[in-house]
Amino acid sequence: MLEDLKIVELATMIAAPTAAVFLADWGAQVIKIEPHRGDPMRGGPGSALGSINYDLANRNKRSIALDTSTADTRAIILKLVATADIFITNMLPDQLEKLDLTWETLHPLNPRMVYGAVSSFGRTGPHRNRGATDNLGFWARGGGTGLLTVQGQDPLPIRQSVGDRITGVVACAGILAATLEAQRTGKGRFIDTSLLAAGMFAFSTDIANQMNRGRTATSKGRRGAVMPLSNYFKTRDGRWVQLHTTLGQLAPALGRPELAEDPRFAGLGASKDDNAALVDIVDAVIAGFDYADVAERFDRAGVRWEPVNTPATLAEDVQVLATGRLMQVDDGQWQVASPWSMVDEGGEVRQLTATPPALGAHTVEILQELGYGEADVSRMRANGTILPHV
């Protein structure tokens, strides 16, 4: 689908590579430039999530491993950039300036190329050169950790990579918009986003409420919820379910129709104590049913609810399986598919499933495409520009 799109990725970690992997999934030619030590997300001995995160963000790409300190490397990058449609990087501004690979340098060499920059805190301001992981930039500084901290309790550890992937979606959208413009006008554009910007956008309802009304609702425990039936409840066999319903729907489904007539729970004006009492009552009732029974009752009554899935239960979820959200790449590894389904007159367009590349697996192949001969490759092996084994 995007076979004619050429992308050069000078990026590591997760957010920026995620922006590029979406394009690679639909056929774009993505060349990933890696240092000799490889993207840190490749992981090492004992790494629990490193290699998994690398694989998820780098399928369908080709890898070229270069020492960025050599003159040959800069020449290679400039040759790649000369014919690219998109350049994606997460290097910090001072790093790009040191390598002379800024927008101001590359744009004159290829005026139609889109330059997509992903950083921690943006390209301006006092912290422009400050690196951060997503739990720092997206969650903590972006406002999410504070918003999700239950009043009176300590902040919970955040699941890492979530903010990175949301930032990758944000970056991809901006890059594609600029690419569409470049195809019409022949003029590329600099697109900048960050973990901080994506985080603030994700939590913008609460931020706007604070800015405009001077207040933000705090997160409370289950018994302190303002909407007690927009809440979590646990079944007898240990499954959690999420409700977002009214007592008028829920009470008959649970076999307790009298609860809908209880004046304590009428409307939205119930007191905090009454809300807590309702949570306690529903807790006790749902705890008397197994998950399958609750699911059947809720579906029959039209109650708005969903299971609180874990990765294990997601893998067996009938809707997940029906929509193809899980897929296998060519080496048999299971991955989560890109979050879109593409359909044309011939039916659904299947995304590519090439195995994530080994470090530098395509170095010589890419150099040959750029016009380098055997003597050049041998010289670069000797001077350390490329790894000896590639």
Structure keywords:
390 residues; alpha/beta; Rossmann fold; 3-stranded antiparallel β-sheet; 17 helices
Count the DSSP helices. 17
> Which radius of gyration do the C-alpha atoms yield?
26 Å
CATH domain fold name of the largest domain: Rossmann fold
Helix-and-strand structural type: alpha/beta
- The residue fraction in helices comes out at 40-55%
Main sheet summary? 6 strands, parallel
**What's the mean pLDDT score?**
94
**Which geometry do the CA atoms define?**
elongated
Order of helices and strands: EHEHEHEHHEHHHEHHEEHHHEHHEEEEHH
State which percent range the strand residues make up: 5-15%
| Unreliably modeled segments | none
Number of strand elements: 13
Please, how many domains? 2
CATH class of the largest domain: Alpha Beta
What's the CATH H-level superfamily name of the largest domain?
A: Crotonobetainyl-coa:carnitine coa-transferase, domain 1
Q: What spatial order of strands do you see in the largest sheet?
A: 3-2-1-4-5-6
- In the CATH hierarchy, what is the architecture of the largest domain at level 2? 3-Layer(aba) Sandwich
Give the end-to-end Cα distance, rounded to a whole number of Å.
30 Å
